[in-house]
Write a structure and sequence with these properties.
By secondary structure, the chain is mainly alpha-helical. It has a domain at 8-121: Zincin-like (2-Layer Sandwich). It has helices at residues 8-24, 27-41, 74-78, 86-102, 107-118, 140-144, and strands spanning 47-51, 61-63, 68-72. The protein is elongated. It starts with 7 loop residues before the first helix and ends in a 19-residue tail after the last helix. 22% of the residues are buried.
Length: 163
């Protein structure tokens, strides 16, 4: 599937605004990020509603047919969650924007949009503030694709040393 994405420079600025929003909770940063993505695709920015949790804590975002996007606020995302990181929340925002932009119900298309949007954004494995970050694992769907797994070498049976 071919997909039009903003230039890497624009994607970096969107990523930077989302990172700042996650850390400082300034709503203007979030609006700028979503506005830039919407402007590129010629769409109106989605109506975003913030929640403490969605679907009893199982999901972090949801996009509806009427264009509304429900997201878990970063402040609530951090509280009580041991493994959920800033990158995971930002990836969730990209995923929900994928549903909004592509108007697709397919999770595969939204995952693909989020994956491609982030690709090449981080310069040389460094974050916006210059600190190194750990590599992001591929999504479960990408890990399960055939051909992406590395083959393990077969171990030869050891020869017995008793003679």
């Amino acid at each position: 599937m071919r997909m039009m994405l903003p230039a890497c420079r624009d994607r970096r600025s969107v990523d930077h605004f989302l990172t700042r929003f996650f850390r400082e909770y300034r709503l203007g940063d979030f609006r700028r990020a979503i506005g830039r993505v919407s402007r590129f695709y010629g769409l109106r920015p989605p109506r975003v509603a913030w929640f403490e949790y969605l679907d009893w804590g199982r999901t972090a975002g949801r996009t509806y047919e009427n264009g509304a996007v429900h997201l878990v606020h970063p402040e609530n995302w951090k509280n009580g969650r041991k493994y959920n990181s800033e990158r995971q929340w930002i990836h969730t925002v990209y995923h929900e924007m994928g549903h909004y932009v592509l108007w697709a119900d397919a999770e595969r298309k939204a995952d693909n949009f989020a994956y491609r949007f982030v690709r090449g954004v981080s310069a040389n494995g460094r974050d916006a503030d210059g600190t190194a970050h750990a590599p992001v694992a591929a999504s479960r769907a990408r890990r399960k694709r055939p051909g992406l797994t590395r083959r393990r070498l077969r171990r030869r049976p050891r020869r017995s040393r008793s003679r």
